[in-house]
Prior knowledge:
With 222 residues, the chain is α/β, with parallel strands linked by helices. The protein has one domain (11-220): Rossmann fold (3-Layer(aba) Sandwich), CATH 3.40.50.150. It is built from 8 helices and 7 strands; from the N terminus they run H-H-E-H-E-H-E-E-H-E-H-H-E-H-E. The protein has helices at 11-16, 21-38, 55-62, 74-83, 120-130, 145-151, 167-174, 195-203, and strands spanning 45-49, 66-71, 88-92, 105-111, 131-140, 179-187, 213-220. It has a 7-stranded mixed β-sheet with strand order 3-2-1-4-5-7-6, sandwiched between helices. Helix 3 (55-62) links the parallel strand 1 (45-49) and strand 2 (66-71). It is globular.
Amino acid sequence: MTPTVTPAxxxxxYDAWYDTPRGxxxxxxxxxxIRRLLxxxxxxxxxxxxxxxxxxxxHVVDGGAxxxxxxxxxxxxxxxxxxxxxxxxxxxxxxxxxxxxxxxxDAVMSVxxxxxxxxxxxxxxxxxxxxRRRFVLGLLNRHSLLWRAKGRQGGSxxxxxxHWHTRAELDRELRALPxxxxxxxxxxxxxSGSAAAQALERTxxxxxPLGAFMAVAGDxxx
Length: 222
């Protein structure tokens, strides 16, 4: 449920949000879910679709993977490259037409990027196409308190124009693709990031389908 870069916002300011107490907690909570679902093995090659300024890309590299970050935003990619991370590289491209051959990556991830892709079902198909083993998506959950606060009537602030996914529609689209063993996990139940919100988060099961952040993972089988 990370914010999007608006025209008035620089990549530097966007990335700095993760250094705030609330941003750090949300980012760490989302990454923990993504990392747990990726099932990465040392040295695997990963694609991060819609990587933006590369915050999640850098974290996956720190976990031992070689990662390619892809995004349409040239400024965000330039910032990500300047931050530098051994094992990370960046490519400009579109999620609905990934410039890679079939099964090019051991795993593919995408964190709150497909919420802003109009033809997100096509992007799903592309993610599955270029993944050899597994994929993990982080999305905005329609059935959450954050949607009630920020998502209704077209959304507000950084969430304006975002698509808030439901498990049912994802289930429908993914089951039409060569995937199996789908898993859904959730996080960021109270997005305020307060001490109380963080304490509650630690007591709730990740399978409770009410978190603002919905992670869906699956194995690719051809």
